[in-house]
Amino acid sequence: MPDNGQAAHFRALEQLYASAPINSLFHSALEVTGAGSARITFEAQEAHFHAAGAIHGTMYFKMLDDAAFYAANSLVSDRFLLTTGFNLHFTKPLRGGKVVAEGRWISGKRRVFIAEAHLVDEDGDEIGRGTGTFMRSHIALSGLDGYRQPR
Q1: Which of 39, 36, 18, 144 is nearest to 98 (CA)?
Q2: How far apart are CA 115 and CA 82, in angstroms?
Q3: pTM, two decimal places
Q4: Lowest-pLDDT range of 10-14, 79-83, 109-113, 146-150
Q5: How distant, in Å, are the alpha carbons of 29, 65, 135 from that of 83?
Q6: Given this model, what pLDDT does residue 148 score?
Q7: What is the spatial distance between Cα 24 and Cα 149, in angstroms, rounded to a whole number?
Q8: How confident is the model at residue 20 (pLDDT cuts 50, 70, 90)?
Q9: Is 130 exposed, middle or buried (0-12, 13-18, 19+ CB in 10 A)?
C-alpha cells in the first residue's frame, strides 16, 4: 500500500498523462497501480488503422512506451523521465476493441531506468511487447502544468 506522498505522486502522474495534448486523440486512461507499475486502457478504433485494415504500429508504440514510461516515472517524484530507446515486438495484428497496456519497471533507480510493457487485446491475447530505457531529465515534475499533487 503506497504512503500518502507516494499515492499523491501516482495521482499527479495520472493527471499529467490526461493533460498531454496527444492523449486527446485517443480514448485512453492511465492508472499507476503501484511503485514500478502502470496500466493504460484504450479503445483501438478504425481511425487508427493502416491501409490493410489493422491498427497502425504507432498505436502499439505509443501505448507500450507510455505504460513503460509511467511505470518507471512512478519511482521518480522530482524529475520527468525521457525515453532514450525502445525495442518493440509486434506479436498479433489488432483490428479494434479494448486494449490494455501493462508497464513494469525492471531495473535502475538513479539515472537510467529500464521498463517493459505488453499489450493485451480484449480476448486476452498478447498483441505486442516492448522494453524501453528512460533517463532523468532536467525537467522538474512540479514545474509541469499537468502534474498537480493535492495540497
Answers
A1: 39
A2: 12
A3: 0.94
A4: 146-150
A5: 20, 8, 7
A6: 85
A7: 22
A8: very high
A9: buried
Q: Give 47's strand partners.
A: none
Shortest CA distance to 127 belongs to which of 64, 71, 67?
64
Least confident of 44-53, 82-91, 128-137: 44-53
Q: Nearest Cα to 134, choosing from 107, 99, 97?
A: 107
Residue with cell 519511482: 75
Phi/psi for 129 (5° steps) reads: -150, 160
Buried (b) or exposed (e) across 13-39, using 16+ Cβ within 10 A?
bbbbbeeeeebeebebebbbbbebbbb
What residue ranges in 50-111 does DSSP mark as E strands? 79-90, 97-107
For residue 74, how many other CB atoms are within 10 A of its CB? 23
Residue whose C-alpha cell reads 487508427 in the numeric block: 48
Domains and CATH numbers, the chain: 4-143 (3.10.129.10)
Identify residue 129 by its one-letter amino acid code: R
Residue type at position 84: T
Q: The C-alpha cell of 91 is what?
A: 506479436
